[in-house]
Amino acid sequence: MADTPTTSPDIRSDAEWRSSLTPEQYRVLREHGTERAGTSCLLAEKRAGTFTCAGCGQPLFEQGTKFESGTGWPSFFEPLADAVETTVDRSHWMVRTEVHCARCKGHLGHVFDDGPAPTGLRYCMNGAAMNFEPAE
């Protein structure tokens, strides 16, 4: 796993991804899985710091954008600039907006338009897809 974030794409073979991630991280990031609601240790994370991609280390969200959504997943109202990308997700007989890491393309979760000000967005992320780096 990359310790130092870069702006270059992170491209690995399936075997490399499997060896660098836990089974749950692999299921979420590479197979577009969803962790069970309320199971992420990042739900209770309130320290100053940055949430990063568990796959490649890309900084994704600052603590100040995290909020309690009551959904059971870590939620944020705004990602860092150029940190994430979105695609249309038509799985499970619905249309949603999938959020993935801009660098490694790992699945992070989905974004909805029912979040708080100032953006009105709720980035509903899988904790298994992220790590937390406390501020120094």
TrEMBL record:
It is an enzyme of class 1 (oxidoreductase). It comes from the Bacteria. Gene3D superfamilies: Peptide methionine sulfoxide reductase. The keyword Oxidoreductase applies. Its EC number is 1.8.4.12. It catalyses: L-methionyl-[protein] + [thioredoxin]-disulfide + H2O = L-methionyl-(R)-S-oxide-[protein] + [thioredoxin]-dithiol. Keywords: Oxidoreductase. Residues 14-135 form the MsrB domain. This is peptide-methionine (R)-S-oxide reductase. The lineage of its organism: Bacteria, Pseudomonadati, Pseudomonadota, Alphaproteobacteria, Hyphomicrobiales. The gene is msrB.
